[in-house]
Amino acid sequence: MLNVIAIMGRLSRDPELRQTTTGKNVASFTIACSRGRKDANGKDLVDWIPVVAWEHTAEFVCKYFEKGSLIAIDGRLQSRTYKDRDGNNRTAIEIVANNANFAGSKSTGGGSNSAPAGGSYNEPTVQYDEIEDEGDLPF
What we know:
Layout: E1 5-11, E2 16-19, E3 25-38, E4 44-54, H1 55-64, E5 70-83, E6 89-102
């Protein structure tokens, strides 16, 4: 079986770091993902996707992302049942984040803190020497 999901969108609010009763860090937040089309009134169709991050991923998201930040998440889809305040059974479907990545440049919205080294992928700058081709290269 395969349960892998990857999404990219903007945080709908600042993530908050909490701790479970056993001391594990957890952060819950919602990502707004555009469907890429508009409704009959010309308004963008958006899905609001709940995400839960644990331990180091939770710390990373809370430290470097804020409302409006463009974020890429990969993880798994999870459903869980619980009882609401009135005792009714409810089902929650959410993404449990394995990894969180910067999806935009610093100018497109990011946390107030500077990004850590390696937090986003940058194409390496490599200098190549010119090859003299005298027609004897095998390709």
